[in-house]
Design brief:
129 residues, mainly alpha
Length: 129
């Protein structure tokens, strides 16, 4: 009985190691590195689009004042997106953050232009007594 339990434990140990080695194929890692590098270069090249994007988003959120404040926010976001792009381009070999996940949200400047969803009164949870 003791031999059977040892054999089962050894079999489980070996199969878990094989499964873990199976998940990280070199082709997948190289593909994720390439995606991270491409995302970094794209964010450097398109970072100036943050100026009109932030102007539109601030205008929606704040009205007329947003169209005055938006370009300044856009200039700051342009610098931020460019710096993140440089970091992703330089460190594309490093699997951080996460597992080659984007360092900025949204990952590209063309995402996130849709208006924020407002919660209706019916969707607001009632406080529990």
């Amino acid at each position: 009985m003791k031999r059977v339990l040892c054999a089962i434990a050894l079999l489980l140990l070996v199969t878990t190691q094989l499964h873990a080695a199976e998940e990280q194929q070199p082709e997948n890692i190289a593909g994720k590195m390439a995606i991270k590098f491409g995302r970094g270069v794209t964010n450097i090249a398109t970072s100036v689009v943050e100026i009109p994007k932030q102007t539109v988003l601030m205008g929606r959120e704040m009205g007329g004042v947003g169209y005055l404040v938006g370009p300044f926010s856009g200039i700051l976001m342009t610098g931020y997106r460019a710096i993140i792009g440089v970091a992703e381009t330089v460190f594309f070999l490093v699997p951080a953050p996460g597992y080659y996940d984007p360092m900025i949200d949204p990952a590209f400047v063309w995402a996130g232009w849709e208006p924020k969803r407002q919660q209706s009164v019916a969707e607001t949870p009632l406080p529990q007594p």
